[in-house]
Specification:
Blueprint lengths: L2 H4 L7 E2 L4 H11 L3 E5 L5 E6 L6 E4 L6 E5 L2 E2 L6 H8 L4 H4 L6 E2 L5 H11 L3 E6 L2 E7 H19 L1
Parallel strand pairs: 1-2, 7-8
Antiparallel strand pairs: 2-3, 4-5, 5-6, 8-9
Length: 158
C-alpha cells in the first residue's frame, strides 16, 4: 500500500501571506487538522496544524530549561492563551507556521509512512510532487488503511 492509496486529495492550502486568523477560519470551516502553506509559485513552505494551538515545550537554553510556548510565544502565569491568540491572530501565517513539515511522496510505502510519523512525532504529513502539495496524510488515514488491510485479508480467506 502506498501514500497515494490513503492520502486526502485534493489538498486545501493557504498562502504564506494570509493572516493566521484567516487560515484558522478555513481550517474550522473545512474541518481539517493541517493546512499546507504555499508561496506564490504553489511551492510548500510549511504547515499550520491544530496542534499548533496547544502549548509545546521549547528549550530556552543549553541547561535543559524548557518553557511552554504557543506559536513561539511564551505562555506564563502572567499571560493567558487568549492574550497570545489575540496578539498572533493578525500575524502572517509565515511567522507562525511550522517551517519544517514532514513530507512524503505518492509512492512512499505505508510502512515508511508509519516509521516517519513515529520518529518525527508527527501526526500529519504533506504529500508533495515537485515541491507542490498534492495531498495530506494523517494518523487517522493510517488507521483507516489498517482496516482496509484487515478487510482485504478477510475477503482473501473467505
Amino acid at each position: 500500500m502506498r501514500v497515494s492509496d490513503i492520502m486526502s486529495s485534493p489538498v486545501i492550502t493557504c498562502h504564506q501571506d494570509w493572516r493566521l486568523e484567516d487560515a484558522v477560519q478555513l481550517m474550522v470551516e473545512k474541518k481539517i487538522g493541517v493546512l499546507p502553506v504555499i508561496d506564490d509559485r504553489g511551492i510548500l513552505q510549511g504547515t499550520v496544524t491544530e496542534n499548533d494551538f496547544l502549548p509545546h515545550y521549547s528549550r530556552v537554553d543549553g541547561r535543559g530549561l524548557s518553557v511552554a510556548t504557543i506559536f513561539g510565544e511564551y505562555l506564563d502565569s502572567a499571560e493567558t492563551a487568549e492574550d497570545i491568540f489575540e496578539r498572533v491572530r493578525t500575524a502572517a501565517v509565515r511567522d507562525c507556521m511550522n517551517h519544517f513539515p514532514m513530507t512524503l511522496t505518492r509512492d512512499t510505502s505505508l510502512t515508511s509512512t508509519v516509521y516517519q510519523m513515529f520518529h518525527s512525532s508527527g501526526q500529519k504529513a504533506v504529500v508533495v510532487e515537485e515541491g507542490r502539495p498534492v495531498g495530506v496524510v494523517s494518523s487517522h488515514d493510517v488507521m483507516k488503511s489498517m482496516i482496509k488491510v484487515q478487510q482485504s485479508a478477510r475477503c482473501a480467506i473467505a
